[in-house]
Amino acid sequence: MRRSMKTMLRWSVLVSSFICLLYLLLTVVSSQNHCNKDDGSHCDTPDGNLYLPSHGLGEKKNTIHLSVVACGDRLEETLTMIKSATLLTRSPIHVHIFSDDDLRPKFKQRLDLWPSIVHVKLAYSLYPIQYPDGENSNEWRQLFKPCASQRLFLPNILSHLDSLLYVDTDILFMRPLDDIWNFLSEFNASQMAAMAPEHEEPTASWYSRFARHPFVPPYGINSGVMLMNVTRMLEAKWLDHIIPYYKKHQYDITWGDQDLINIFFHYFPEKLFQYPCEWNYRPDHCMYMSNCRSAEERGVSIVHGNRGVYHNDKQLAFRAIYNAIRDYEFGTDLEEGLYKKMVENLEKDKHTNCGKISNVFTKQLSKQISKLMKMKRNPFDENK
Question: Exposure pattern of 236-251 as b/e (b: 16+ CB <10 Å)?
């Protein structure tokens, strides 16, 4: 009887040890295949992506997915863009940042210093620059500006998402992301991406005058603010078209990935939704003459500071907007700390054509801040 008891005890210990070992093994495997830490630490996912969850923000149904590609000296510009996205947006935001190896730790360091009121609605993930196997990564990386072509591959990399808003680093939001995200519901059954025209005036149109490849008529499209239905882009086998277009037209294109996007939608115009120029307002819209009617009527919704205008003296109105958002302190009054500072900055530029119509830059922002004041709502309250 004693021997039987000892045998049973020995087997019990062995089974318990085996269960514990199996549990530990499963835990290790699970940690290698999932990356869902809530403590701000990071881990590498099996596909090579570096995922950094921010302050435990759980994914919600109404989350807006924003993506940007940043290489070289684009850290400050990108952070200012992300800051502008958080200021008025009502829904939770998840930013997917693709960047150089040396920039990713800097993004984490800077974003984690932002106050908790921001992280209530902001999560972010960091990814390395990556191109498909079999493709010349260096060649793609140097197409136009460093890493800019990464946007072409986002639908395949972020294939688990249904929709995505891609923006260049030099974008600033003057109204909630919710508003541009709502364009997705206006897509018809065929449309899979939305962009604004490259130009409004035939005399200023680069594509109609100089392009040596197909483009979206009449004046081309600008890809700096690109709203994507990822599901439909994958169904359309987007990359199966883009890569052959590059091989065929690589010596004809000037603006890199934007030209390839123009070529695609030239052949598939039914898949493109075009929103007005106020959603991608650039120096071209005011530097010679004001030619964006929708911005004149409703105000600028999204500022696109291409041509490096945030960092030079050529178009001071754009730099005034950028500096006001960059210097705004989270949690301070939006009217006093942002709007009035922006107006003050713009008052210093009345000699350029863009400066002379400075009200178009602040009209929409003023309207959005007034809405918040009437609702007596803190823009950083958790989504209500």
Answer: bebbeebbebbeeeee
Q: What is the reported pLDDT for 18?
A: 53
What sign does the CA torsion over 207, 165, 158, 41 have?
positive
List 273's β-bridge partners, or say none: 194
How many CB atoms are located within 10 Å of the residue 52 CB?
22
Q: Is the pTM of this model over 0.70?
A: yes
pLDDT value at 327 more than 60: yes
Distance in angstroms (rounded) separating the CA atoms of residues 224 and 114: 26
> What is the Cα–Cα distance from 361 to 355, expressed in whole angstroms?
9
Burial class (CB in 10 A: 0-12, 13-18, 19+), 228: buried
Distance CA 39, CA 43 (A): 11
Give the Cα separation of 318 and 355 in Å (integer).
Answer: 9
State the amino acid at position 19 in one-letter form: I
Q: Half-sphere exposure of 184 toward its Cβ, with a 13 Å CA cutoff?
A: 19
Distance CA 17, CA 104 (A): 42
Of the candidates 367, 321, 366, 309, the one whose C-alpha atom is nearest the C-alpha of residue 348 is: 321
Q: Which residue has the tokens 């962009």?
A: 195
**Among candidate residues 118, 39, 110, 55, the one with its CA nearest the CA of residue 79:** 110
CA gap 79, 122 in Å, rounded: 13
Q: Rounded to whole angstroms, how far apart are CA atoms 194 and 190?
A: 12
Q: DSSP per residue over 194-228, as a string?
A: EEEES-SSGGG-HHHHH-SS--STTT-EEEEEEEE
Contact 165/228 with Cβ under 8 angstroms?
A: yes
Nearest by Cα to 222 from 282, 266, 177, 299: 282
d(CA 188, CA 273): 9
367's enclosing H/E stretch is: helix 359-375
Query: What is the token pair recorded at 48?
Result: 């090579």
Q: Say if residues 354 and 303 touch (Cβ distance below 8 Å).
A: no
In which residue are the tokens 């395949």 written?
156
- Dihedral pair phi/psi, residue 258, rounded to 5°: -65, -40
Task: Choose the weakest-confidence range: 136-150, 178-192, 307-321.
Answer: 136-150
The token pair at 188 is 């018809």
Confidence check: pLDDT of 301 > 70: yes
H or E element in which residue 361 lies: helix 359-375
